[in-house]
Write a structure and sequence with these properties.
single chain; alpha+beta; disordered N terminus; 7-stranded mixed β-sheet; Purple Acid Phosphatase, chain A, domain 2; 416 residues; 6-stranded mixed β-sheet; Immunoglobulin-like
Length: 416
């Protein structure tokens, strides 16, 4: 009963429908589709989504479907809007058509090509407290990105707390809003705090909220999002509900091999290969953690072989930018940047000294989000933006991907 009352206190009336959360995702082409997801408490709430392209007088109607959210009173709804126009602004309403200015919500589809710069943000490890999450979500809204990549440890609900998910959804809906009220779509990965026990969870029962709230391509926790020929984002599961080696590693190699024509390509996951803290209890540093070693052994040779733009890592609650790395060594000519380290809006930790952290170009305990601006000429601006909205680090990429050549043998130890 107390959880139900807490949820009711969060609700704001909107178009005769009480929303716990409203959020946008993709499970198909981001240029021509958009999945509208919403959560409320009413079993009889409308499934109708009225939408139209901005400037059009003609409304279209799409019927949503219901989905269960674990064993809670939360009512999930979603509808995939299709046959949309690329790089276009739409307005929509749930339950009725917009009758006056200021009602409803907006979204924008992705472009077919880079005839304009594409901008996205990325981060992970999001909510220790609602107040700090609200503040960082507002920073994301002010950056007005095309979409956000959120790679695990979202609500810190540990697979059991519906109230924390209600807080997380509400915060995103209220604060991560771009220009003209445009909702920012999300690409969502899994972390240990989505899972009962953190690692080696059963699907879906040990991560019921993740697998119900987010409809990923193929229904798995590892997947690819393709944005025409200019961008791919490969999201992986670092042993939370899928083993690192085996089928996932085989899928990764196949996915990379099939996307050699993509201009930009990012890999994102939760637990880092090149972290900043969490050394093993028996001694050593962050690079000696068994999962870090396994990622470098099972995954890293594949993206070194085919080439990527950057690798996004999380979990360790710090800011991190590595030196360009290849074959477990610094390689300024053709190395890969590992960016992290999962400090969107959580308490931060300490980082290694410069002498200890040979792989780190810059690291500190600082809440932040990464900002990526991709340009048609294959260059990119990468910036780190803190919770005050300040840009405190940046790097310019002159080429969209590292050179795809055979990967050297991976060294598993933490040494240089």
């Amino acid at each position: 009963m107390r959880i139900l009352l807490a949820l009711l206190a969060l609700l704001t009336p909107l178009a005769a429908q009480d929303f716990v959360g409203l959020y946008l995702t993709w499970s198909a082409d981001p240029a021509t589709t958009m999945t509208v997801n919403w959560v409320d408490l009413r079993t009889t709430s409308s499934l109708d989504v009225h939408y139209r392209r901005i400037g059009s007088q003609e409304w279209q109607l799409a019927k949503g479907t219901k989905f269960a959210i674990s064993d809670t009173t939360l009512q999930g709804r979603r509808v995939q809007l299709t046959a949309l126009s690329p790089d276009s602004n739409y307005e929509f309403m749930i339950g009725k058509k917009i009758e006056k200015a200021g009602e409803g919500w907006r979204f924008r589809t992705m472009p077919r090509d880079l005839n304009r710069p594409v901008h996205f943000v990325a981060g992970g490890d999001m909510m220790h407290t609602r107040a700090r999450l609200d503040k960082m979500n507002a920073v994301v809204g002010s950056l007005d990105p095309d979409f956000a990549v959120l790679s695990g440890d979202l609500a810190y609900a540990n697979g059991v707390s519906s109230a924390r998910w209600a807080d997380w959804l509400k915060s995103w809906m209220q604060h991560s809003v771009g220009a003209d009220g445009r909702l920012i779509p999300m690409v969502v990965g899994i972390g240990n705090h989505e899972v009962r026990g953190g690692y080696k969870g059963k699907i879906p029962e040990d991560a019921p909220f993740y697998y119900s709230l987010f409809q990923t391509p193929g229904g798995k926790s590892y997947f690819a999002h393709d944005f025409a020929d200019y961008l791919s984002i490969l999201s992986l599961d670092t042993d939370h509900t899928e083993p690192i080696k085996g089928p996932q590693a085989a899928w990764l190699e196949q996915a990379l091999a099939a996307r050699t024509n993509k201009q930009f390509q990012f890999v994102t996951y939760h637990y880092p290969a090149y972290g900043t803290t969490k050394a093993p209890k028996e001694g050593g540093g962050p690079l000696d953690a068994p999962r870090s070693i396994e990622i470098r052994k099972e995954w890293m040779p594949h993206w070194e072989k085919y080439g990527v733009t950057a690798v996004l890592e999380h979990d360790h609650h710090n800011y991190k930018r590595t030196h360009p790395l290849r074959g477990h060594k610094r390689d300024d000519a053709n190395g890969i940047l590992y960016l992290g380290d999962g400090a969107y809006a959580v308490n931060t930790r300490t980082v290694p000294s410069k002498e200890e952290g040979w792989w780190l170009a810059k690291a500190e305990g600082r809440n932040h989000v990464w900002s990526f601006r991709l340009r048609a000429d294959g260059t990119a601006l990468i910036q780190a933006v803190d919770i005050e909205g300040k840009v405190f680090d940046k790097v310019e990429l002159k080429t969209p991907r590292t050179k795809p050549v055979g990967a050297p043998k991976v060294v598993s130890s933490g040494g240089n």
